[in-house]
């Protein structure tokens, strides 16, 4: 059994490759929920949904979020009523949020709802939220503290970032099964997700980091940074704000206490020595995940390292 | 200023005619909310919405509910997730329920939200819910007490009806403006809506019936029953269950304590004597409201009686 820690868009590409290279029943995928937010009274879980849609084969590969061929009728009409429309909720996607919110209002936990949704879509891999408790990634900017979605979607990462915090994380508990999965895993994979706001919140849930440190199974990461720049998203800005070096070496340092091996880009081969000094192996290869072929190949290499 | 009491589909036809025959700014429309219900955590107000969509010119004339050209993508996907789909929520229609529910969760009253929505759609007539308090029409059947939507939509009026009750009505208050409107009206119009479950709940809100009795302005009704059968809907079954005669005379009796004049169908002219004995005038004419022309003509006749 393999445990995968992941955020949304970037991580989903490797998750897709892994699900095609190994029996999905052997995968337990732990998702970041720090980006979750409430809009129109609906609980939106962007990373859980991106992973779910990807594994169901209904994701929108061109956008990197949402469901393919989705329409935006509800959002258009919410706009007519004076509602906010900057978070692009598609109609099919909205059904997920409506269903999730209704079940949660009836007392179901986020992990129970996530299980029901993925089973409805025929997904065999287990998908777990990092926590059933509310943890909210907040970005400190010169104009004040804002939500991650405000930073990431509404203002498209335009704000200067002073710091990032995970509100509520101290009192959060890992979702049922997360710690057990890490303890019993034959291997743990860290997706090429943003180390600050995608993997960071998962590691900040009390107990998760310790379980990784104590794991006897190898922990393999894939660098989200190639040659000093993130493959996608605002990792650069966020890593710099947190005082991290924006490179595969910076990524290795962030995970130094539990990582066995980091897959880095061929052009970052010169960083192998520095990573080695942290007690982490590295393997340089092409780690771009643009095509399905790339995703399967990198997944295959990661699995070979386990 | 004219006050209109109405339910959904049937009443909306006369409301449409009235809005075309008189300056809509002079209309205050009081809607039944006994059919309101919560589905997927969303507050659905079928009659308020049918009236709102009709006045905005976006209603679906073929169905008698919902918004024209609407799609059902969200509902289809809710079905994939194992959710209930018997209540046909269109995508455009859903935006109304999502917006309303979000604003109500923020503390806005149903009447405040109704005002915002109708203004967003450019409606000049005032639309008021009968009450901001929750009043729920319940149908007593041999299989137990069920909601009105369960009776009306889910099982298509198949259940035998033993009685109807309006849960919560004793402690409800008329929405702000309802009593004042009736007191200050130059005329009150009762739409050809079901007297049991459309007009009945409005009259049951404490203070409304008394205000109608004390009104010095004429109160004009249009019969929803033609020749012993309702024009549409389950009025027949519901009236019979409540011990009412299923005829224009039965309608007159239900409103005898405050009605000035009842417009009845030409073929019901023979009931004029019985209605007269109740102290109510009647006027026999063609009261079918199939075409816009019919609706305007009947509206014109009602306004002439005021």
Structure description:
The structure is a homodimer of 306-residue chains. The first copy, chain A, has 306 residues and is α/β, with parallel strands linked by helices. Chain A has a single domain, classed as Rossmann fold (3-Layer(aba) Sandwich), CATH 3.40.50.10680. Chain A is 39% helix and 19% strand. The first copy, chain A, is built from 13 helices and 14 strands. Chain A has helices at residues 9-21, 46-56, 73-80, 91-105, 110-120, 148-154, 178-184, 199-204, 208-214, 235-241, 248-254, 272-277, 292-305, and strands at residues 2-6, 27-31, 37-39, 42-44, 126-129, 136-141, 144-147, 163-167, 187-190, 219-222, 225-226, 229-230, 261-265, 281-285. The first copy, chain A, has a 7-stranded parallel sheet, with helices on both faces. In chain A, a hairpin with a 2-residue loop joins strand 6 and strand 7. The first copy, chain A, is globular, with a radius of gyration of 18 Å. The N and C termini of chain A lie close together (11 Å). Chain A binds chain B through residues 40-42, 70-71, 73-78, 80-83, 91-92, 94-96, 98-99, 101-102, 105, 116-117, 120-121, and chain B through 40-42, 70-71, 73-78, 80-83, 91-92, 94-96, 98-99, 101-102, 105, 116-117, 120-121.
């Amino acid at each position: 059994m393999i445990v995968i820690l992941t955020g949304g868009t970037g991580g989903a590409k490797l998750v897709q490759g892994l699900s095609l290279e190994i029996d999905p029943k052997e995968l337990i995928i732990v998702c970041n929920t720090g980006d979750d937010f409430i809009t129109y009274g609906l609980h939106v879980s962007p990373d859980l949904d991106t992973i779910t849609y990807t594994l169901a084969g209904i994701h929108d590969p061109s956008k990197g979020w949402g469901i393919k061929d989705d329409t935006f009728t509800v959002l258009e009409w919410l706009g007519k009523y004076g509602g906010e429309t900057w978070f692009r909720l598609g109609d099919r996607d909205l059904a997920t949020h409506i269903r999730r919110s209704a079940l949660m209002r009836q007392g179901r936990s986020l992990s129970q709802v996530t299980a029901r949704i993925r089973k409805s879509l025929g997904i065999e891999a287990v998908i777990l939220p990092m926590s059933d408790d509310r943890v909210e990634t907040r970005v400190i900017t010169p104009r004040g503290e804002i939500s991650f979605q405000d930073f990431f979607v509404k203002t498209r990462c335009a704000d200067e970032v002073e710091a990032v915090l995970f509100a509520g994380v101290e009192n959060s508990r890992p979702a049922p099964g997360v710690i057990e999965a890490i303890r019993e895993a034959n291997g743990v994979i860290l997706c090429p997700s943003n180390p600050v706001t995608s993997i960071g919140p998962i590691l900040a849930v009390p107990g998760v980091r310790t379980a990784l440190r104590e794991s006897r199974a190898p922990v393999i990461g894939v660098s989200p940074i190639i040659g000093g720049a993130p493959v996608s998203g605002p990792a650069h800005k966020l890593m710099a704000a947190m005082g991290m070096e924006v490179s595969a070496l910076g990524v290795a340092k962030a995970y130094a206490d539990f990582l066995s091996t980091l897959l880095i880009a061929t052009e970052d081969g010169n960083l192998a020595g520095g990573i080695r000094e942290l007690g982490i192996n590295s393997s340089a290869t092409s780690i771009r995940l643009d095509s399905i072929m790339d995703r399967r190949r990198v997944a295959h290499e990661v699995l070979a390292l386990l």
